[in-house]
């Protein structure tokens, strides 16, 4: 299971705006996008994807996740459930976020015999769910009427999540071989993913 959290903001773009520009033109008005310096209201959401399925979205009530919250809100109700259904081939991917490396999280994973992938220290580009988050953010940013409340944002995210095809998820996970090869080729630096 590939999993991670993402933030989605009520301000336009949710940091998912890409500007292609020619060298030396960064300060031209057409290449400047004004935005608020302080984050607007929004949501923190978690999900997991696998070759044969996906979890439900889990919305956190704050943008801060501790090791205890990760264990209580994610590992116990979602990961443990999927591990029981997929066992014994279940393999869990957790990046190296501080809440994932808490002692109580490691103890839970060990006690429940949840096998974890080794993960590089700083390689979010390897995690296929990051591309799912990016796609959802772009879909929301492209809406004619973007969400204006947290409740509406949650509903819109849930609808976009439900529309994701199993083929897309399968394709993203199947690309892991190429992702890993690209990461090795650039010795851990940025990849085209």
From TrEMBL:
Q: Name one GO molecular function term.
A: nucleic acid binding
What InterPro entries does its record include? Answer: RNaseH_sf, Tc1-like_DDE_dom
Looking at the record, the residues that make up the Tc1-like transposase DDE domain are 2-142
Q: What is this protein called?
A: Transposable element Tc3 transposase
